[in-house]
Amino acid sequence: MVDGLGEARALFDPAPGTIYLDSATYGLPPRPTVEAMHRAVDEWQAGTADWVRAWDMRGEDCRAAFGALIGVPKECVALLPSASVGVGTIAASLEPTDSIVVPDDEFTSLLFPLLVAARDRGLSVRTVPFERLAESIEPGTTTLVAFSLVQSQSGRSADLSAIVEAATASGARTLVDATHAIPFVPIDAQVDYLVCAAYKHLLCPRGVAFMYVAREHWDELPPVNANWRSTSDPYGVYYGGPLDLSPGAARFDVSLAWFSWVGAAVSLKLLDEWRRHGILAEVSGLSRRLADQLGLIQPVGSVVSVPVENTEAVRADLAEAGIKAAVRAGSVRLSPHVYNTAEQIDRAASALSRHVLQSAVT
Ligand SMILES: Cc1ncc(COP(=O)(O)O)c(C=O)c1O
């Protein structure tokens, strides 16, 4: 029998002795990604690269791979440097009559562009408990629901289909930040907008992010960052008008930080292969195993947040076991990926078990 996870794991080089469980902070790159980036830098140094073919067009590979990962046509995907740039574009389309629902404690890259629009244009942003998003949509009043599908701080997942159903019935749109969901949580409902930073669970370099825009909204968002890359002929015309925009969501592209996209093309291709071979489902199994051993609710995605009694004691025990995780006041966030093993998960569970806040245990 082929050990899919084992084959995938062989492509990574975490430091010896380190159990890396912090993909929600930044994901580790597979070796072929790093090699492609080294080659690009060498060609840059030597001045030998054909920048269009070798570097810029890798963005098109990424557009197609991201579309395949979430099951949407590539024409609906824009290439961005960060999630907030996508939210800023959507925020630029909002009007004083808009009424937006967001969860309490939403990540600022999603929340702040909306708050800026509220401050400058007078639209309303209402915060509600994360688990009450669907029922907080007011028919005829709410025009947009914006939320992280998986919360970065807690690993909790929103009920995507219930929210989309309530939004559709009420005439509201949905803006999903799927940064901590993809590639482990299926996007199985028709959303209007989706943003995703790729440097975490998509194992890409920083500077790579995506925005999905449903076809019917292409003409409604202002392409505020229009540039040579977002035209119908990116490598043809660089000077002068008239305004020319890509017919698809590429009109929202921001010109690419080349080396990051060279690496991203390789990581995304591998992720798509792993998804098709069921290897990503095995990662979700690792997260469930961890939650089970600690007596916590099983996550829908890969992120497990462990409420703890004493953060400093936890930090010491994790260091002793060589475990890298995100330790915050009152909790530890662990986020497995293909580079982790069941044995590592068991070691993390045993390092953490005595620290788990008993009131969180189910
Ligand atoms: C939910 C969420 N969205 C987006 C990001 C990244 O945002 P940006 O790409 O704007 O830096 C993070 C980073 O931690 C995040 O947790």
Walk me through the topology.
Blueprint: H1 4-9, E1 19-20, H2 31-46, H3 51-56, H4 58-70, E2 77-80, H5 83-91, E3 99-103, H6 108-121, E4 124-128, H7 133-136, E5 144-148, H8 160-170, E6 173-177, E7 193-197, E8 209-213, H9 258-276, H10 279-294, E9 304-307, H11 311-320, E10 323-324, E11 326-328, E12 331-334, H12 342-352
Parallel strand pairs: 1-10, 3-4, 3-5, 5-6, 6-7
Antiparallel strand pairs: 2-8, 7-8, 9-12, 11-12
Residues 82-84, 107, 109, 148, 152, 177, 179-180, 197, 209 line the site of pyridoxal-5'-phosphate.
Short synopsis of the structure:
The chain has 362 residues and is an alpha/beta fold. 37% of the residues lie in helices and 14% in strands. The longest helix has 19 residues, at 258-276.
Structure explained in plain terms:
Strand 5, helix 8 and strand 6 form a beta-alpha-beta unit. This protein is α/β, with parallel strands linked by helices and 362 residues long. It folds into two domains: 109 residues, Alpha-Beta Complex (Aspartate Aminotransferase, domain 1), CATH 3.90.1150.10; 223 residues, Aspartate Aminotransferase, domain 2, CATH 3.40.640.10. It is built from twelve helices and twelve strands. Helix 2 runs antiparallel to helix 9, helix 4 runs parallel beside helix 9 and helix 10 runs parallel beside helix 12. It has a seven-stranded mixed sheet with strand order 2-8-7-6-5-3-4, sandwiched between helices. Helix content is 37%, strand content 14%. The longest helix is centred in the C-terminal third of the chain and has 19 residues. Bound molecules: pyridoxal-5'-phosphate (PLP). Pyridoxal-5'-phosphate (PLP) binds next to helix 5.
